[in-house]
């Protein structure tokens, strides 16, 4: 342990926590609707390739920075590149994480609201009728979603203030296995519906004739988003990792779990969508408007909807822990009392930053910035600008500022892999990853 710095109690605890950070709204909420609007199976195949190749390479890069220095992001970049402005990458990560959590926690509040309503059976009542109108009604009720938003933030603060072992690791070790169990139950139920195989074919049978440049770039962006890359979250988590652990095995486990969840997510959602003749290209509202309609047609639909919302809440919380932890680790200085203060001050500050996002569908719906509501603009800023910039700079930083021998030793420590793997990884992180990120970034800006 470096300078009394807390570490993960076990390797599996680290993997579950890091996978929990990666397996959030990106895999369960965003991937299904992006796949639904971007070609289904073809999108998923391209996403899989990018995740395994480029996502894993960047994940390992962040692991190297954190584990090598055993320090939070700002201090880590200062140690590896003293006397330079590279520490700005840590500041960028903190700012990005605060902004992500500010609107992410709003969606977390929506999930809590829906979960509470699902327990009464009202969400799957056939008399509900128009689920789109219901969704609009709920998110425009600023008192209800505001209270749920605050509850979500408080849960996140209470877990993070407990520290790495007693807070994040303990919670993740309960939530992640529960998430998998619930997912398996939902997938089994979804696959037994009449007409379910049409949804499976849509999700897993690639039709490459519909693939265009936009599909490829969407898949690339989703690969990075779904692994929580580009904001130094994995730098933070790996800084608590013991020197004896294999980074390659840990990264492989995390990527594998992330891909598995993405697969289960599609198999839980698309068979039901197709079985009941609904459209898979509903976009961001797929979870909140289409799925209640699907579950309302099932036997024991309210039970299955409650289970789905519970797993969505677990997935969202485990990601929220990592987003707040990067802020707390940078200010707490391994002091438990300072950690509690940092968690509450940081969490409440992020809640306040998120209030305009929460009100974007209610009393601030007419307040537009550059032609769109505040919530959407913050989402766009982080997902399409700050994350790609952070990911690009990390890919440039690692081979540029860490010498080759140190990179090799850190990457291969605890692993049976040899020089060939290291050389292949170095080529990917030095050349392929930055070019791919820049291509996606320029496309989003409409430059290419």
Automatic annotation (TrEMBL):
It holds the Pfam family SNF. GO terms for cellular component: membrane. Keywords: Membrane, Transmembrane, Transmembrane helix, Transport. The chain crosses the membrane at residues 12-29, 41-65, 85-116, 145-164, 176-196, 216-242, 254-278, 298-329, 341-361, 381-400, 421-445. Its main location: membrane. It is a multi-pass membrane protein. The keyword Membrane applies. It is found in: Membrane. This is Sodium-dependent transporter. It comes from Salibacterium salarium. The lineage of its organism: Bacteria, Bacillati, Bacillota, Bacilli, Bacillales.
């Amino acid at each position: 342990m470096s300078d009394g710095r807390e570490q993960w109690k076990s390797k599996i605890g680290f993997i579950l926590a890091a996978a929990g950070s990666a397996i959030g709204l990106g895999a369960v909420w965003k991937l299904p609707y992006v796949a639904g609007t971007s070609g289904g199976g073809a999108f998923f195949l391209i996403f899989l390739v990018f995740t395994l190749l480029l996502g894993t390479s960047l994940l390992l890069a962040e692991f190297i920075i954190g584990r090598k220095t055993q320090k939070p992001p700002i201090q880590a970049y200062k140690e590896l590149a003293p006397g330079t402005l590279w520490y700005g990458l840590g500041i960028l990560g903190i700012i990005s994480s605060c902004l992500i959590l500010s609107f992410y926690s709003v969606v977390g509040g929506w999930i809590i609201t829906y979960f509470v309503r699902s327990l009464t059976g009202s969400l799957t009542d056939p008399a509900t009728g128009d689920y789109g109108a219901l969704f609009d009604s709920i998110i425009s009720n600023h008192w209800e979603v505001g209270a749920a938003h605050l509850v979500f933030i408080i849960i996140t603060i209470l877990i993070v203030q407990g520290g790495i072992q007693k807070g994040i690791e303990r919670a993740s070790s309960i939530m992640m296995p529960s998430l998998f169990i619930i997912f398996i139950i939902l997938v089994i139920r979804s696959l037994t519906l009449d007409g379910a195989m049409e949804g499976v074919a849509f999700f897993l049978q690639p039709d490459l004739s519909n693939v265009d440049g936009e599909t490829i770039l969407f898949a690339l962006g989703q690969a990075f988003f779904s692994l929580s890359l580009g904001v130094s979250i994995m730098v933070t988590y790996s800084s608590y990792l013991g020197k004896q652990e294999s980074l390659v095995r840990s990264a492989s486990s995390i990527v594998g779990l992330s891909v598995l969840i993405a697969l289960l997510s599609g198999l839980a959602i698309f068979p039901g969508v197709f079985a009941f003749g609904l459209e898979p290209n509903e976009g961001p509202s797929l979870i909140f408007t289409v799925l209640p309609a699907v579950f309302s047609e099932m036997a024991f639909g309210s039970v299955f909807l409650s289970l789905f919302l519970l797993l969505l809440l677990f997935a969202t919380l485990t990601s929220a822990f990592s987003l707040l932890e990067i802020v707390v680790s940078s200010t707490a200085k391994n002091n438990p009392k300072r950690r509690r203060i940092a968690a509450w001050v940081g969490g409440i500050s992020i809640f306040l930053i998120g209030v305009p996002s929460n009100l974007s569908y209610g009393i601030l719906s007419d307040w537009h910035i550059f032609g769109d509501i505040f919530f959407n603009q913050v989402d766009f800023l982080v997902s399409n600008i700050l994350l790609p910039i952070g990911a690009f700079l990390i890919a440039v930083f690692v081979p540029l500022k860490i010498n080759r021998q140190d990179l090799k030793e850190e990457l291969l420590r605890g692993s049976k892999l040899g020089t060939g793997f290291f050389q292949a990884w170095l080529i990917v992180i030095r050349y392929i990853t930055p070019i791919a990120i820049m291509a996606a970034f320029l496309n989003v800006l409409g430059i290419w």
